[in-house]
Amino acid sequence: MAREKILKGIAVSHGIGRGKAYIYEPGEVEILQTPILPIYLEKEIARFEEAIEKTQKELNNIKKRINQEIGEDFAQFLDAQVMMLNDKEIIERVKKEILKQKMNAGYIYNQVIKEYAQRLGASKNQYFRERVADIWDVGIRVLRNLFGLTHASIVEVPEGSILIARDISPSDAALIDPKNIKGIATEVGGRTTHTAITARALQIPAVLGVKRLLSCIEDDEKIIIDGDRGIVIKNPSPGRIRFYDEVQKKKLKLSKALSPYCELPSQTRDGKYIDISANIEFYAEYNYAKKYGAAGIGLFRTEFLYLARRGNPAEEEQFRVYNALAKSMKPQPVIIRTFDLGGDKIFSDYQEANPFLGWRAIRVCLDKPEFFKTQLRAILRASVNHNIKIMYPMIATYEEIKRANLIFEQVRKDLIKQKIDFDHQIQVGIMIETPSAALLSPQLVSQVDFFSIGSNDLTQYTLAVDRGNEKVNRLFDHYHPAVLRLINNVIHAGHEGHIWVGLCGELASDPLILPFLVGAGIDELSMAPMAIPKIKMVLRSLTVSKCEKIAHEVLKFRTALEVKKFLRRAIHKNFPGIEEVL
Ligand code: PEP
Ligand code: MG
Hints:
Layout: E1 5-8, E2 10-13, E3 16-24, H1 41-69, H2 72-75, H3 77-85, H4 88-101, H5 105-121, H6 126-130, H7 132-146, E4 161-165, H8 170-173, E5 181-186, H9 194-202, E6 206-208, H10 213-216, E7 222-226, E8 231-234, H11 238-258, E9 275-280, H12 286-291, E10 297-301, H13 303-309, H14 315-329, E11 334-337, H15 362-367, H16 369-382, E12 388-392, H17 398-417, E13 427-432, H18 435-439, H19 441-444, E14 450-453, H20 455-463, H21 481-496, E15 500-503, H22 514-520, E16 524-527, H23 532-539, H24 544-554, H25 560-574
Parallel strand pairs: 3-4, 4-5, 5-6, 9-10, 9-16, 10-11, 11-12, 12-13, 13-14, 14-15, 15-16
Antiparallel strand pairs: 1-8, 2-6, 3-7, 7-8
Phosphoenolpyruvate binds near residues 299, 433, 456, 457 and 504.
C-alpha cells in the first residue's frame, strides 16, 4: 500500500477537501519556427485572426463565469486583457511581420508580444509595469490556440478533484469550478494571492505555499486537504481517513445544529443586543452574509478590488461596486474600509525590508492624496440613500486622522460644489490595530464616529510577531494579556467618548473569548460569514452580568495560557452546553 505523506503549507481557506489529485501544469508553450511559402501567407494571417477570435470567445466565457459566481469587481482585470488582445498596433505588426519574415504566426506573435512586454516592463508608469503579467496571460492563450494546444485546462478538471499546481494564473483561478474541485494546493502563494481569494470566495478548502508539492504528488493519488490546519495528506492511511470522516461528520452535524441560529437575534440571554456582521472581500460574498444572518457588512476589504484587477480601480468602477453592495445589503450597514495595501497585500514592486512596518494602508493613502480622494469620492457617491460607513485602517497617530479627515472634508466640499449628492451624516471610523492607536484611544475618540478593533494586526504589532513567519508564529497569540488589556482599554475609551466599538479580527469568531468581549462591553463583532451562527449560538447562552465578572478576572492574568485555562473553566461552570463548540 502507498505510504502516507504529510506536507505542510499555509491554510488560506477553511474546510476539509478529499479527492484525487489533478496535477495542473499548463507548462511552457514550445515556440516552433516554420517558414511559410508565399502562396500560404494569406492563409497564415487568416489563421492568426481565427486564433484572436477564439481567444476573445474564451475570455468572454471566463468573464461571464466570474460575473455570475464571484462578482463583477473580480472580472475587471479581464478588460485589460481583452484590450491587449485586440490592440490594433500588435495585430497589424504581427500581420506585417508574417508577410515580411515569411514565418508562422505563432513564431511572429511570440516575438511581438515579447517586445511589447519588455517595453511595458521598462515603463516608468507602475500601471503599465503591472500589465506585463496580463500581456503574458493573454499572449499564452493566443499562442496555445495558434499551436493547436489544448489548454491544460482548469475547466476540464473531473468531478471530485484536488487541484495541485505550482501556481495558478488569475484568469485560470477565475475558472475554478467548486462543483468539481474539492480542494486546492499550490507550491507558490500566501493568504492574499488570487488563488487564496478565489478559494475563500468559493468556499473551497485550500493550502498554499507547500514546498516541493509537485515532486511529491502524482496524478490520481488520493489526497486530503486540511484547510483548517494547513496540511496536505497524500495516500492517507485508514486511520487518517477515519479521523477525517469523524471530523467531517462532526462539522456537518454542527452546521445542521447551528443553522437555526442564522435567523435568531444576536443577543445575550439577558437581552443585550450585539451586532454580528460579516467580513467580506468581494461584492458577491454579500450572499453569504445574508445566508448566515449577518446584521450588515462590518468590514469590506476594498484592497481586493485593487489586487484582483492588479491596478488602480477608477472612481466609476469603485462606485459601481460600493453602490451595488450597499443596495444589496440595504437597510443594513456596510462598513467600507479604505485601501489597506502594503504589508502582505503587496501592490507594487516597491521593495521593503519590513513591509508590515512600512508603507501600508493609511500611510499610502495620505502620501497619494489623489488616489485616496478617488476612493472617498466613490464611497460618498454610493452613500446616497444607503447605509454606508467609512473606516480608515492602520491608524497609528492623531495626525493621521486629522489629515485623513481633512482630505475627506475636501472631497465633501468638491462634491457639494459639483452638486453631487451623498449622505451628509455618514459615519467615519478608524481601525484600532496598532498599539499606539489603542493607547491613544481616549485622545482619538473625539475625531471619529466609531472604533473597530483589528485584533489580527493589534496582536502582531503588540507582540512584535510576524504571523506569516513560521519560526515565530507560535508566539502569535491573541489571548496574550497585553492584547486583551489594550482591547479592554479601547472599548472603555470608546464608551467614555460616546461612540460604539466593534472588533473585526479573527478573535471575533473565537467562541472561547466571547465572554471576555461581552463583559468588556463590545458593541459589534464582524467575522467570516460562516462563523456567524456559532457565535450567535454562544452569545445567546451568555449573560452580561456573569461575563463582566469573567472579563474582570481575565485582566488579572500574566500569560495567554492562564487566560485560556480560566476561560474554559469559567464557561464550563457558568454556561454549560456551549463547551462542545469551543
Ligand atoms: C485585523 O488586522 O484584525 C483586520 C481585520 O484587518 P486585516 O486582517 O485585513 O489586516
Ligand atoms: Mg489589519
